[in-house]
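Input/output pair, single chain:
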Amino acid sequence: MNSIARFKIVVRDFFTSGSLFMIPMFGVVLFMVLGPMILLVLSSLSGEEAAILTGKYSLSNYIQLLKDPRFLESFANTIIVASVSTVFAVLLGVSLAWIIARTNVPFRKLLGVLIIGPFFLPSFIAAISWVILANPTTGLYNLILMKVFALSKPVINIYSLPGLIIVFSFQHAAVIYIFASGVLKNMDPALEESSRVLGAGFFKTTKKITLSLLVPAMFGAGILCFEEAAGDFGIAATIGIPGKVKMAVTDIYTYTNYFPPDYGYAAGYSLFLIVMASILLLVQRRIVRRKSYVTVTGKGYRPSIIDIGKWRYLTFSLCVIYVLFATIFPYSVLAAGSIMNKIELDFSLSNLTLKHWVEVISFDIVQSAIKNSLVIAAGGGFLCLLLCIVISYIVQRSLIKGRALLDYVSMLPIAVPGVVLGVGILWLYMSLPVGIYGTMWILIIAFSTKRMPWGVQAVSANFRQVHRELEESSTVLGGSWLKTLRKVTLPIMKPGLAAAYALLFVEFMKNLNLSILLYSDNSVVIPVIIYNFFNERGETQLTCCLAFLEVVILFVVLYVTSKIVGGGIAEIGTTKQQVSS
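Output:
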């Protein structure tokens, strides 16, 4: 075969294998993920909004930060809140998962659904619910305690460091529960039975076998919760700012949004958070890789249910207490607050009204926010899913060199707090002559970048479940890679893709960390309006109306998707577990 013939074959294979389409995806992903990060680094070294163009760099911002008592205080508070809340969340989440998955506690299925309620409640809306319930002046918890025990003054103050820890702990315990319950349900009971046969008691078996096998999931979920707590603007602003508890994310927001802005300082703050998160990810990978944690084999089995006797009522009480304070009360106060003239312990008909619903729906900006949010969540979530399908196909099915690098880069946003990523994206697209700043497109790009790891991991898990011989049969019959993907692979993956899309829709719909920095009057979304109603205007009832409306929209989408997937709403939440792998 001469050189011209070989060249023709190479060209033909290049076009028919999909390389012409796949290779540019490297550039797209690298730009989406690394572009904002590079600009953040350069900005932290110069202090200029478009630092890449100035060429004047120094370490002055870092030196000033390390000398600034405000930075040291906010960074210390961030580490304390994130660390302590993560520990509490892990203890609570693992305990709840073990109770539901492995014991004969009453109403296991119902409790299992209610326990993950906080996962579907946007964190900043959960913070608003806690403020209504536990603020030091008109909080319902305080009103009840003062009335029952004849107290002269409130005893609970959610506007505090412990308040932040409590809210994060209850919110993230649901995430830990999802991760831990998945492992416990797939654990081979023979491992624990062997331990007991060899003479180990219940507690020793639990410590040496059960908890040891939870290590990978707990490290992955724990680090995810730590990073969410360190970078969650909604909770930090709603509870921390009124309580004068300085947090890193609120300081970053202040430095970029108040006059005069200090972009270099904000970038320096951001880099400290990124370094901290990256170190944690490296530690997690090193610890998990030291041992084998394989528990799922080809043999079929069902996890054993432990009869805990009289303890089942105590464990049932623990589950009920968590469900009440983490799910029932926060959801209920939103519904009740939306139809009350005054949010107080007065449930008479004279205190009930629908005027707040009429008022909030009549606002033009609310109507625009609802429309924008649905367009961004539905359209943006779909575009993000397509991007994740292409990335996963390259990683899981192609032979393109460098696909491992693509997989690694697509996972990087998980280590970057939302506000920090928002700052980088803001400066990047303000510096480029593309004209998308202030439009819905910049929000779609930002949300897609931040949630890319979730989508890629969820889709990759589905690709791994489809045997290659199905696709090879299509190829043998003359189908191109694109036709094989469209006609064979994607139809098989339909339930998993529906669950991934639902998860992306939810995350796009409830994201405040990015939208608070990137929105404009033309691209305002529901989370921003809710934040402004509550934190800027003090319109609690209007806040409850809009927050409850967003929750209803999310649950409708989840319910419809659950019918497509063929499971319950709780099954969709387990898609997030793929991020830890």
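The mean pLDDT is 80. The chain has two domains: 22-58+355-581, 68-337.
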